[in-house]
Amino acid sequence: TGRIHEPAWDGLWLPYFSILDPCAMLHAMNDVDTCPLCGTSNVPLEQTGRYRYGHCSQCLGIFMDRRYLLDAQAEKSQYLTHNNDVNDPRYRAFVRSFVEVIAASEPEGACGLDYGAGPGPVVAVMLEELGYRVSLWDPYFHSDEDVLRERYDFLFACEVIEHFYHPAESFRHMKALLTDRGTIYCRTQLIPEDRPFSSWGYRNEETHVFFYHETSIAWIAQHILNCSYTIHDGTIVSFSYR
User: Fold this and answer.
1) Under the phi-then-psi rule, with left for phi > 0, alpha for psi from -120 to 50, and beta for the rest, what region is 16?
2) pTM to 2 decimal places
C-alpha cells in the first residue's frame, strides 16, 4: 500500500490547528458556551488558574475560553521552546510507546503522515528507521501544500490534538487524508477521573486548548470519523477503518 496521488481535501489545506490568520480563526471559534468538538451548549467552568474553561455536557471535553487563545507568533514561539532534538534519548524514550503501537499495526513500508510534526519530528524519524515512508505536515514548520493532496495508509499526531482550536474540523481533515482502510494514531493525555481538573498539570501548557475525555474519543469515532477506536493506555488512541 502507499499514497494515492489525488486531492484528499478538495484542494483545501487550512491547518485547523490554531493559526494562520488569528483574527479569522478567533471569529470562527464558537463562544465559550458552545463546544468546538460537538457543538453542544455548556456551562462554563470556574476560573482555573490563569484561564477560564468550558465543560461540554455531551462529549465531556474541556476547552479554553477563546479570549485566551494565542496568536500565531506567540504560539510558534511556544513550540520553539520545546525539546526538538530528534536524537535526544530522553525525547525518543518519551515517544517510544507511541512508535511501538504504530509499528505493531502497520506493515513495513506503509506510508504515513506526521500531522503536526513540529520542528523536531522524532516519531517520523523513528518510524523511518523502521522502514516506513513518512511525510511531514505542520502549519508552521512543514507547510508544503502538496503533502495534503495525497492519501496515506496512516496518520499520526503526537501531542497535537490538544492544540486544536477547531477539533471537529481537524479530525475531518485527517479523515480526508487517509486511504479507505487507514488508521489515525493520536497521543494525548485524557482527562483524568482521579483528580480535579484544577490540579491536573497537563492543563498548564498555554497552547493546550482542548482536553479529551474517553467520551470525547467515542464521540469523535461515532459522529465525525465513523470508525472503530481503541484507547491503548490512557494516552494513545487509534481510530481505524480496518
Assistant:
1) left
2) 0.87
